[in-house]
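Question (not urgent): is this output format expected?
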Amino acid sequence: MTIKSHYSMLNKVGEVRGSHQWDWFSGSTYDIERWLIETDTSGTAVIDNVINNGLKIETAAVDLDDVRLKFNGRQQYNFLGAVFICVHRKANITNNKHNCGLGESQLVWRYSTSTDTAFTLQTSNGGNTKVTSDVNDTNWHTFRAELMPTSAIGQVDGVLKVTSTSNLPGVVLQPVLRAQAHGANASINFFRYFEAFNT
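Got this back:
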């Protein structure tokens, strides 16, 4: 039996794939050489010690405290064609803001108790365009967004929910997972999986 590499299992013979990364957020810690944490005060990003919870990002209980897990400044994803997939759940519906995607706000699935009625796909390039889905709960969901030259589409759990054609990113992008407190309560969010690749 020949053991193939991951690359040969995922790609056709002769195909040259662009940047592609994934993270299951398992083990005792996230990959600190891949991911860089930025926090305003004492927020944390840790692998949670609960079955299937994955990465837990928690802000301090301070209004607008912000915790970001970034791809350490490596902007490897093309604004003309990239995809991200994020398996995520929010622990609380009130007093929180969070997003997962490519860039701080350029192509993200987000939710903010102060402005959104449900999970929203946001594209940003000078201005913001937000297109709201019909999903708003604390269950696990698989969020997917694909950026193309003239549009971005967003899926939740494999179902197309939104399309955006304005304010599409115009810069190369890096993965970002983020939580922000609104009010005096901590924002707690869980991420079980993240994947990004160029198309």
